[in-house]
């Protein structure tokens, strides 16, 4: 919940100046990479990332992968999430 509050203020239509999209503020190129890494469908469009279900699924997948990459350190995973492209 804290990630979503910080990233988009819970706005599913949010778009950042650098191109992050939706409630979880996912970057389209990275979203497809994380979807594939997590075994999720990756045939979505950038516009589909405004759909809350898709955006949250990708956001959760990305955070889970980030946790793995930093030995389950929540602090480091949060920093990674903030800086992913």
How would you sum up this structure, described in words?
The protein is built from 4 helices and no strands. With about 80 residues, it is mainly alpha-helical. Helix 2 (about 30-35) crosses helix 3 and helix 3 (about 50-70) crosses helix 4 (about 75-85).
What descriptive keywords fit this protein?
single chain; 85 residues; mainly alpha
Describe the structure concisely.
The protein has 85 residues and is mainly α. It has helices at 2-8, 28-37, 52-69, 74-83. It is 53% helix and 0% strand.
Biggest β-sheet strands, sense, barrel? none
Q: What is the terminal separation in angstroms?
A: 20 Å
| Approximate strand percentage | under 5%
Number of helical segments with 4 or more residues: 4
Order of helices and strands: HHHH
**DSSP, total strands:** 0
Gyration radius over CA: 12 Å
Morphology call: globular
Please state the oligomeric state of the protein chains shown. single chain
Helix content: 40-55%
Mean pLDDT figure: 94
Low-confidence stretches: none
SS content category: mainly alpha
How is the secondary structure organized here?
Elements: H1 2-8, H2 28-37, H3 52-69, H4 74-83
Helix pairs in contact: 2-3, 3-4
